[in-house]
Amino acid sequence: MAKKVLVIDDVKSELDLLSHYLEEAGYTVTTAASGSEALEKIAFDRPDAIVTDLVMPEVTGLELCRKLKKDPDTANIPIIACTTKSRKMDQSWAKKQGVAGYVVKPCTAQQLADAVRFAVL
Question: Residue range 35-49: average pLDDT?
Fold first, then answer.
């Protein structure tokens, strides 16, 4: 059975592209256009992994990560950041917040699929 991945991005074109990459790699993909929408979806249908942008209005990717890691029901869901933030400091901070993988946009389909595959092992 295909692993379920929730993709979160506030830019529709990015959301569509990342979803396409993961569907082509064999994952079942659901999407959310915001961190708050993602929290609602996770409450009803827990994914096997989450791919999230970090820079979003309302609930940022890192805020989402912190909320999920504090909850025992969602703490073990691997979270992959897919963001334009490319500095080592950003990556280090994200890892401290519980991010399991980090992909810098623009990314290739292979880079994203590899990050998800590695995170869900």
Answer: 96
